[in-house]
Amino acid sequence: MRIKVELETKEETLPLNYREKFLSYLKKIFEDHNRDIYQALYSSGANYKPLCSAIYFRPEVEIVKTGITLKSKRFVATFTTRDVMMGVHLINALLSRRNHWAPLADTGNQLKITAVTKVREHEMTDTAAFRILSPVVVRDHDQKEGRDWYLTFEDKLFEAVWKRNLKSELRTVLGRDAGHDVDGLNIKPIQLRKTVVLCYSIYLPCTIGTFALEGEPYLLDYLYKSGLGSKRSLGFGCLDIL
Questions:
Q1: Could you identify which of 95, 117, 142, 231 might form a hypothetical disulfide with 236, taking C-beta atoms 3.0 to 4.6 angstroms apart as the criterion?
Q2: Which residues form the CRISPR associated protein Cas6 C-terminal domain (predicted)?
Q3: How many whole angstroms separate alpha carbon 92 and alpha carbon 114?
Q4: pLDDT in tens, 139-180
């Protein structure tokens, strides 16, 4: 399911780490609307979250090192999920906040949802061209050292680490080994570039742009609806058809 949410802000200014602030706003919506869903998503043991998001700022917007100036005081959030019931709960939770101002944590700003729309999804075949709506984070986690490295498409290990992580995720989500099909995915960059994003006081190297993907239709559908890479529920890795 794909959901478009239109929002207004009280003030023009937003911090560079707006993603974590928006996540706090979203958590509060879930907590107030359905505590069971909130616990399922955000309790300490909930590692996999079937929710991906992206934020698009309406023109005119100015982004500098000190923050974001949103002259229109408007932006759009896109949510995607392959879990239909999760999508229904999300729509209902968002509608419960429509036309009500609520604080955006630690910013002095407030948000108001003005519209919630279910967007028609595309049917997947064995090839698709994607536009990255929110930066893709690929994390290489060293369990022995307890350290993380973040890779972009410029790094030699980018594809290998992403596929390794995807195989592990699919074993959990699908309950079976999809390793052979994941190995068969063929990524073709169209126009990709590296960017750096502030998230919880860390500057994360990310990938944005467009790319083509060939492979099993169910995998392309999974990535289209679930997103690509790590930290997707925090506003990373959301895709749309080009």
A1: 231
A2: 121-241
A3: 14
A4: 998 877 778 999 999 999 999 999 999 999 999 999 899 999
Q: pTM of the prediction?
A: 0.93
The continuous run of DSSP H or E covering 200 comes out as none
Q: What is the three-class DSSP state of 171?
A: helix
* CA distance linking residue 225 with residue 86, whole number of Å: 12
Parts of the chain belonging to CATH 3.30.70.1890 = 2-119
Angle at 204 between CA 200 and CA 210, to 5 degrees: 130
Tell me the two tokens of residue 203.
């500057």
Question: What is the full DSSP assignment across 22-78?
Answer: HHHHHHHHHHHH-HHHHHHHHSTT------EEEEEEPSSEEEETTEEEETT-EEEEE
Q: What SS3 state is found at 130?
A: strand
Q: Please confirm whether the linkage preceding 60 is cis (ω < 30° from 0).
A: yes
CATH 3.30.70.1900-classified regions of the chain: 127-241
- Distances 113 to 120, 126, 136 between C-alpha atoms, Å: 20, 37, 26
State the Cα angle at 193 between 189 and 197, rounded to 5°: 135
d(CA 9, CA 60): 14
Q: Could you tell me which CATH class the domain 2-119 is placed in?
A: alpha beta
What topology is assigned to 127-241 in CATH?
A: Alpha-Beta Plaits (3.30.70)
Residue 117 is predicted with a pLDDT of: 98
CA distance 233 to 79: 9
